[in-house]
Amino acid sequence: MGLTSIVLIVLLVLLAGYAVTLYNALVRLKHSISKAWANIDVLLKQRHEELPKLVETCKQYMQHERTTLEQVVAARQAVSNARVQGDVNALGRAESGLRAGLGQLFALAENYPELKANESFQHLQQRISGLEKGIADRRELYNEAVNLNNVRIEQFPDVLIARAMGFKSGDLLQFSEAEKADVNIKSLFS
After folding, report:
1. Predicted local confidence at residue 10, as pLDDT
2. Helix 3-59, helix 158-165: angle, nearest 10
3. d(CA 84, CA 40)
4. How many Cβ atoms are within 10 Å of 46's Cβ, its own excluded?
5. Contact (Cβ atoms closer than 8 angstroms) between residue 48 and residue 41
6. In which element (H, E) is residue 15 found?
7. Contact 125/189 with Cβ under 8 angstroms?
8. How far is CA 125 from the centre of its chain?
9. How many other C-beta atoms can be found within 10 angstroms of the C-beta atom of residue 32?
10. Domains of the chain and any CATH numbers
11. 47, 121 in Cβ contact below 8 A?
12. Contact (Cβ atoms closer than 8 angstroms) between residue 131 and residue 54
């Protein structure tokens, strides 16, 4: 075995090691997206469980606001369906509808002093506000993981491994422009 053969073998081993390193980095990014999505999913499930309680509490006081309550219930179901299907684009649209419905519901609650004073309503309002903040925080982490993944699978030489191994780009979780502003629920009740 000559020197050329040894150099060639060493280069092939180094190239294979480099390819494995790139592959492992892409796998980590893929799992970062899954982990970030799971974190959002937990909060969405918690909020999903709280919303019927809020609607029931509001129904006791808001007899004339059935349309708003029905909008919140329908939006809740749309979020749930998108979450279960893992459809990020549909989830973004459904979240926008839900946030709009909740904003309208909390604004209408201003007209019902008994509702605003209800301890259950206050607790649910605080709980849902906290979950909304958590969802926004986790959404930021999810979008960062997706962005890192998307950049890596398009960069050279990562793109070679990504295409060969079937790595896919991810979709950012985006809300409509009107819904990007945080709903300040506390200000509605001061």
Report:
1. 93
2. 70
3. 12
4. 16
5. no
6. helix 3-59
7. yes
8. 20
9. 17
10. 19-188 (1.20.1440.20)
11. no
12. no
